[in-house]
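Sharing a chain and its predicted structure for anyone who wants a worked example. Both blocks are below, sequence first, tokens second.
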Amino acid sequence: MGLNNPYIPASNSQIEKMKILLKKALEDGCIGISFGLEYTPGASTEEMIVLGDVLHGYENRLMAAHYRYDADRGIEALQELIYVSSTMHIPMQLSHLGSCCAFGNMKEGLELIDNAKRQGIDVEADCYPYAAFSTTIGSPVFDPGCFERWKCGYGAILVTEEKYRGNYCDEYIFESLRKNYPVTLVIAFVMNQNEVMEAIQHPSIMVASDGYIHDGQGHPRVAGTFPKVLGRFVREEKVLSLVDALSKMTILPAKRLKLSRKGRIQEGCDADIVIFDPEQIIDRATFEKPLEPPLEIEWVIVNGEVALEKSRLVYKQNGKIIRFGVM
């Protein structure tokens, strides 16, 4: 499409091409459209509305978005997404609320979402249980002003790849990677853990991993998110009940995605089952070893077939692509 610069807006002709691609994706069974606004600063609110309008021709479709701003502009970012949902009358999923608002404004962010829901605006949000995010160092997330916004310095950024793997940044490493190795995955320890917990405790906030691994390196949320919530938040810190935690991981996301056969153990539903010991389950994934498997997940059953047996992987491709609205 020729739009390789994330800082410039799409032209009318490019938006028309996007609409064609979106229609094709929806007809092929995609549930909706997602926006990565912090990564594409040139994408305007109007562009979101124009593309979102395509969803009106399809039943029960969804918009999702990675917010445009974080930290001191996080509330402004949420207001934009709530506005889009309200204007379009289309459900909006707010992705990983922690890395948007766990900078001193989580309470205000949660109240904003609650107020929108009370007004009949269909907005929901999810969060991962870590006070650090991960992305590529060359992305607009790390544009000038980020450290002032996060109230930290270069040393808050951990490199996970390339020759500086395992090192925290200084100015030289940061600028060198931004210029020469922009796709290097890094981890930013910039959020407040107590506010992340506040989000996950909130009744309507789902648990999601937002995971991404490259060549075995990345963020421990890929392997640790769900056992961390069950082991640390539920059992050890007792800030969440087991039933509430499981609901945030299963039935709430299933309902959000209109997947009527997912999220519950019931006759007629898909047999997707995880068997674990609630008294022992714990995450072992760390920022140094992000793929360490958790303890005490004994069995995983996908579509009625065993995928993990007595903590040992069974190499079967039991899953299948879910195509929304396609029989």
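Comments welcome. The chain has a mean pLDDT of 94.
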